[in-house]
């Protein structure tokens, strides 16, 4: 049980890196801005590293789906703050559906069998 909670913690850390990666990709402007580019590369590596730790315990389908789901929603939220991207009611509804799916996966997941 302890490893299962740790795996979800790793997955949340990976999702934060995923959001930073996506925002950095936009900010780097095709890797033409040095600090955004470095941030993008570091965040990509951090996200994949923590995702790999999470899926040692969680099913890869659940881990990857939650990682991309949280990353997608977080990117939209922070993209609207950092880059002033628009947020419409239909977009918000769709993101709420993604959040519902992520919560559902969390509630119905179990630890992967030990190899």
Radius of gyration: 15 Å
**Basic shape:** flat
Helix content: over 70%
Number of domains: 1
Largest sheet, in brief, is: none
Q: What structural class is derived from the secondary structure elements?
A: mainly alpha
Instruction: List how many beta strands DSSP finds.
Output: 0
Number of helices: 4
Mean pLDDT figure: 90
Low-confidence stretches: none
Q: Roughly what fraction of the amino acids lie in strands?
A: under 5%
Distance between the termini: 16 Å
Order of helices and strands: HHHH
Family: Belongs to the drug/metabolite transporter (DMT) superfamily. Small multidrug resistance (SMR) (TC 2.A.7.1) family.
Membrane topology: Multi-pass membrane protein
InterPro entries: EmrE-like, Small_drug/metabolite_transptr, Small_multidrug_res
Transmembrane segments: 7-28, 34-55, 62-83, 89-108
Describe the protein's topology:
Layout lengths: L1 H26 L6 H21 L5 H23 L6 H20 L7
Helix pairs in contact: 1-2, 1-3, 3-4
Membrane topology: Multi-pass membrane protein
Keywords: Cell membrane, Membrane, Transmembrane, Transmembrane helix, Transport
Pfam families: Multi_Drug_Res (PF00893)
Could you explain how this protein is built, in words?
The chain is mainly alpha-helical and 115 residues long. It has helices at 2-27, 34-54, 60-82, 89-108. α1 packs antiparallel against α2, α1 packs across α3 and α3 (60-82) packs antiparallel against α4 (89-108). It is flat and about 40 Å long. The two termini are 16 Å apart. It is a multi-pass membrane protein.
